[in-house]
Amino acid sequence: MPDDDRPACVEDVHELALAMPHVTVWPGSEHKPVYQVGGKSFVFFRNPRPDAFDPETGERYADVIVFWVPSEADKEALVQDETSPFFTTPHFRGHLSVLVRACRLGEISHGELAEVVQEAWLSRASARRAATWLAEHPPPAG
Fold first, then answer.
1. Which residue segment(s) compose the domain that 60 sits in?
2. The overall pTM is greater than 0.85
3. Which of 5, 68, 69, 116 is the least crowded, having the fewest Cβ atoms under 10 Å away?
């Protein structure tokens, strides 16, 4: 895809999530969308919460997006680099998800965001749906 290298944006989250099969969208609280597959959330826009806040001002982040991940190792890979826009909070300890602020999405490429959304979907889809999608979208060789 020619735009894989461009910076990601919030609109990409919506487009990529909706591009996955069998997706339903719930308005969520405060009309923040929740993307689901088979009744299971895989991406959602979170309301401001006390565990995700600006350390200088104490203001709660209003632009947090949650992505499910396949495993604790995948979560660690995304959050261990302090320069990465992905993070977690104590509230999400033991939860197979990572957080990112919408205002920092441009720090990753559209292609990287696509992988995160696809992995989120795969981690929540039924085994049959996941196998079908993977058969239709084999990983690039190399």
1. 10-125
2. yes
3. 5
